[in-house]
Amino acid sequence: MASPAQMSEADQIKTFKDFLVQYNKLSELCFNDCIHDFTSRNLRPSEDKCTVNCMEKYLRTNQRVSQRFHEFQMIANENMLALAQKSGNPS
């Protein structure tokens, strides 16, 4: 991945927007699953634990999906290269 200095301003804005979408999705998901008591401004210990577990599970799952996508992408690229070499059309 390119460093922020190498990214165009438009790419940096898109990356930040993508981050915000993911952050908001995670916040809404965990809030809806874990927060049920609106009688206090403070989180109950069970709500706090639930939100932490929710966040960690979401992030681990997201990381695993990204890792698997990367693995499949590498296999697809290797297959395309092998096919191109087999047909005599180097890329």
TrEMBL record:
Bilayer topology term: Peripheral membrane protein
InterPro entries noted in UniProt: Mito_inner_translocase_sub, Tim10-like, Tim10-like_dom_sf
Record bears the keyword Zinc: yes
Subcellular compartments: Mitochondrion inner membrane
Top-rank taxon, per record: Eukaryota
GO molecular function annotation: metal ion binding
Pfam family name, one: zf-Tim10_DDP
Keywords linked to the UniProt accession: Chaperone, Disulfide bond, Membrane, Metal-binding, Mitochondrion, Mitochondrion inner membrane, Protein transport, Translocation, Transport, Zinc
A cellular-component GO term for this protein: mitochondrial inner membrane
GO biological process terms on file: protein transport
Residue stretches making up the Tim10-like domain: 11-70
Self-association state and partner proteins as the record states: Heterohexamer.
Record's comment describing the protein's domains: The twin CX3C motif contains 4 conserved Cys residues that form 2 disulfide bonds in the mitochondrial intermembrane space.
Function per UniProt: Mitochondrial intermembrane chaperone that participates in the import and insertion of some multi-pass transmembrane proteins into the mitochondrial inner membrane. Also required for the transfer of beta-barrel precursors from the TOM complex to the sorting and assembly machinery (SAM complex) of the outer membrane. Acts as a chaperone-like protein that protects the hydrophobic precursors from aggregation and guide them through the mitochondrial intermembrane space.
Stated family: Belongs to the small Tim family.
Descriptive protein name: Mitochondrial import inner membrane translocase subunit
UniProt source species: Euphydryas editha
Upper classification of the organism: Eukaryota, Metazoa, Ecdysozoa, Arthropoda, Hexapoda
